[in-house]
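ARCHIVE CARD
Drawer: 12
Card no.: 0347
Subject: one protein chain, sequence and derived structure
Cross-reference: see card 0346
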Amino acid sequence: MVWPFGGRRGRFERLHVVRVVHEGEKSVVYLAEPSGSASHRAAVKLYRPQYDQLAHSLEQKYGIPSEAEMGMQLNPRTPAEVEHHPLVVTKSGGREFGRRNGCRYIVLEFVEGVTLKSLISVRDPRVWKARVAFAADRCRALRVIHEAGFVCRDFCSQNLILQPNGRLKLLDLGFVAPAGVAYAERSGTPGYMSPEQVRAEELTPASDIYSLGIVLYEMLTGRLPYVSDIRGDDPQSLEARRQEVMRMHLERPVPELPPEVARRSARLSAIAAKCLQKDPADRFPAVDDLIAALRGYCKTPFVTRTSEKPEGKAAGAKRRKRGWTPR
């Protein structure tokens, strides 16, 4: 691999680590900045050794690009779109210390904010007030992924961050992969996995629409629709809980929103219910159809891309007619 930075080699070349932002099973994320400059901050995602080996083996098994390569493909098309791009921007990738056996890392834009999961857990009033706008932001993120021929595979509230500008951005692209492939590993967050993902079937954009429906349900109710009663943090309990939640996606009926929620937000509840259908054919055909339904729900038009202008009434009505609009 070509070393992505010039000059003398260091841990992340010219980037100086400021602090640890997140530590997980698969990676560690650092806040970093160029030496002597605090105005060009970046997030460095460093794979842990075991996950680095696993990720490499999966790339070879399925013939898929690396996370860094897929992130570069999903970057905004022009510099003007960077500010409002719904996905984290990937800057480059490298290998720690520049050695063959060093773990891989990815340089990403550093995003300020708080996760949607955290906002939901503390019942932040912004979640309900901006529920339609937040849903639109999630659709924008999936639209970019699907238009590139990929599926997200791990669309959950923990991976969505609310920025100071009021927009949601999708942070983690670790499980993004080409659509139309059956991934036997069933990677993802169990609470948000579609039935076909649990069954290790070929994944289409409909799988992500189901996951989006889970996030929408969680945002409207403050909880996930399927929760295991198994307790404990030991490996056996964690795996048993994971398996039980995945079975719930297969065996439990489509979750109904509480009557008080359905009364307060009837149309958005109907949109969530359609996303959560067990059969992919019964969900929205594509994210664009979901966007059309949301646009019909909004009192004022919202922009789906920075290059687009709000639709007029005639154009909006024509587009809604093609898609599914809740009554």
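Annotation on reverse: The first helix runs from residue 49 to 62. The CA atoms of residues 10 and 106 lie 15 Å apart.
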